[in-house]
Design brief:
The chain is of the alpha/beta class. It has six helices and eleven strands. The structure holds fe (ii) ion. GO terms for molecular function: cyclic-nucleotide phosphodiesterase activity; metal ion binding.
Length: about 260
């Protein structure tokens, strides 16, 4: 059995205020919770938007805080990240592509694939030919081994304003590819700051709350002009995989109020 931790969108800032929340306090709380309750996990994936602004000082402060985590870390790129600084400051598995923060990790329960869906200068995402070829090559050579994919941008609409304009461009091309391989068992998706589960082309998927701030439910309707984070507590995900069966527990690690600005 494999046990892994899934965090998403910490939007870390050394200055300590992003949309009324302190990312230092929130991430610290999540790390304490993991160390106290889940130090038996094999690794912890953070599915992108490691920092709110891709500056050296943010990555350095983030890296320093992450040192307290007792579980090996698999960090991923999102639209808020800076690839160059990310690679310079955070450690990545040896299997990582040269140009992209895209890699795979082999486990006794299957292959963990972490994609880089960042499109430079855009909040929407992309998987260019090089990244898609890398994935196709991996799936071709995987044979019977189950594959679990983590990615920042959703490849399909999920019914939220923030995603449906800022999702993965040409997500259909990605879905055409992965739905063609039975070895692909699950998609774990960041970016939307809200928990949603379903299937797409027959492949199960889940999204995750942010460590920092949450997207409101689709109703009452909202858009970027009216956007205000909902007053919901953050979650981490506890993933267990056994014989290709996936169990995802959404676990609250602090109250909504923790790390919010005094009103
Ligand atoms: Fe994002």
């Amino acid at each position: 059995m494999l046990k892994a931790i899934w965090m998403s969108d910490p939007h870390f800032s050394h200055e300590g205020d992003v949309l009324g929340h302190d990312p230092r306090v929130r991430l610290d709380s999540a790390l304490d919770h993991i160390n106290s309750n889940h130090s038996d996990a094999s690794f912890c994936v953070i599915s992108g938007d490691m920092v709110n602004h891709g500056t050296q000082v943010n990555y350095e402060a983030l890296s320093q805080l992450l040192e307290k985590l007792d579980v090996p870390l698999l960090p991923m790129a999102g639209n808020h990240d800076d690839r160059k600084l990310f690679r310079k400051i955070l450690s990545l598995p040896d299997s990582c592509m040269d140009e992209f923060i895209q890699f795979s990790v082999s486990t006794s329960s299957g292959l963990i694939v972490c994609l880089d869906t960042q499109k430079s200068g855009s909040d929407a995402g992309e998987l260019c030919g090089k990244r898609l070829d890398w994935l196709q090559n991996l799936l071709e050579n995987t044979a019977e081994v189950p594959v679990y994919i983590f990615m920042h941008h959703p490849p399909m609409a999920v019914g939220l304003p923030m995603q449906d304009t800022d999702g993965l461009i040409d997500g259909d091309v990605f879905l055409d590819l992965v739905s063609n391989y039975e070895c692909v068992k699950y998609l774990f998706i960041g970016h939307v700051h809200r928990p949603i589960s379903g299937t797409v082309r027959g492949v199960p998927f889940s999204t995750m709350r942010s460590i920092l701030y949450q997207a409101p439910a689709p109703r009452p309707e909202w858009n970027w002009d009216t956007f205000k984070p909902s007053e919901e507590a953050p979650n981490i995900g506890i993933i267990t995989i056994s014989d290709s069966d996936v169990n995802l527990q959404y676990e609250q690690f602090c109250l909504f109020e923790e790390g919010t600005r005094p009103k």
